[in-house]
Write a structure and sequence with these properties.
binds 3-methyl-2-oxobutanoic acid; 8-stranded parallel barrel; 8 strands; single chain
């Protein structure tokens, strides 16, 4: 779906993207297996999508928005309504990257039919190009059901945050031989089912490498391996918005620190009445 920006935004924050480009497609990205690394970041709002779009191949409206935007303790409480609202905002704010929306917990696990019902709602309400869902062998029939009906799917194996209550936490996966082998089986099942990419999260390094060389589809690592076909991070983690993050996060900036400095400067300017200054006031209407 292409987005055209026609608003007169002289006084609006809904800044249009100045030079719309043709949007990438799922087949264009899928062909990059073993080639130029695929760049993916999460985005949850239109403005962030506008800023990230030209740097990314894929924008993921991750269910991590439950923690990042809504302050929830896990992603288990995220709803389909939340994903649709933020998915639509990210599609409106982008014109180049392929937008993928996460299927939230409880919206797809019961049956392939339930998954199709939820995923088709996401696609229709947001204009996204595809969906992502967590799980391995058990979810393979669901992935095949969606792909055969025209919905591109990204799988997600290894550390699957929606399963935190079964896993018991967010530690790295694949440390025992049995779990290592199970995660390889999961990835291979999802690849055979027709997913065009698989997010491999929070696994011991050789596992990300082994999965990448044993599946035909793209692998996108997060705490996995530089050998993956691409990488993804939660954008707020990458920007340095949180003091506590997983080992695999690299902070490319210190936004939390910069916001603190800016907020302190604003508060001081309000308190000493130096804000607003004359240039920030409207002139009175000339008399007569
Ligand atoms: O929800 C999310 O943001 C994700 C990424 C961490 C891959 O699933």
């Amino acid at each position: 779906m292409s987005t055209t920006f026609t608003l007169d935004t002289s006084t609006s924050r809904a800044t249009p993207t100045p030079a719309p480009m043709k949007r990438l497609t799922v087949p264009m990205i899928a062909r990059r297996k073993g080639g130029e690394p695929v760049v993916m970041l999460t985005a949850y709002t239109a403005r962030m999508a506008q800023l990230l779009d030209r740097h990314c191949d894929l924008l993921l409206v991750g269910d991590s928005l439950g923690q990042v935007i809504y302050g929830l303790d896990t992603t288990v409480k995220v709803t389909l309504d939340m994903m649709c609202a933020h998915g639509a905002a990210v599609v409106r704010g982008s014109y180049h990257a392929v937008v993928i929306v996460d299927m939230p917990f409880g919206s797809y696990e019961a049956s392939p039919e339930q998954a199709f019902h939820s995923a088709s709602r996401v696609m229709a309400e947001t204009g996204a190009a595809g969906v992502k869902l967590e799980g391995g062998v058990a979810m393979a029939p669901t992935v095949a059901f969606l792909v055969e009906r025209g919905i591109p799917v990204i799988g997600h194996v290894g550390l699957t945050p929606q399963a935190v209550n079964v896993l018991g936490g967010y530690g790295a996966r694949g440390k025992s031989q049995a779990e290592y082998a199970k995660i390889v089986d999961d990835a291979q099942a999802i690849a055979r089912a027709g997913a065009f990419a698989i997010v491999v999260e929070g696994v011991v390094e050789p596992l990300g490498r082994a999965i990448t060389s044993s599946v035909d589809c793209l692998t996108i690592g997060i705490g996995a391996s530089p050998a993956c076909d691409g990488q993804v991070l939660v954008v707020d983690d990458m920007l340095g918005m949180f003091e506590r993050t997983a080992r695999f996060v690299r902070r490319f900036d210190d936004f939390a620190g910069r916001i603190d400095t800016a907020a302190a400067a604003y508060a001081a300017a309000v308190r000493d009445r130096s804000f607003p200054a004359e240039a920030e006031l409207y002139a009175p209407v000339a008399a007569g």
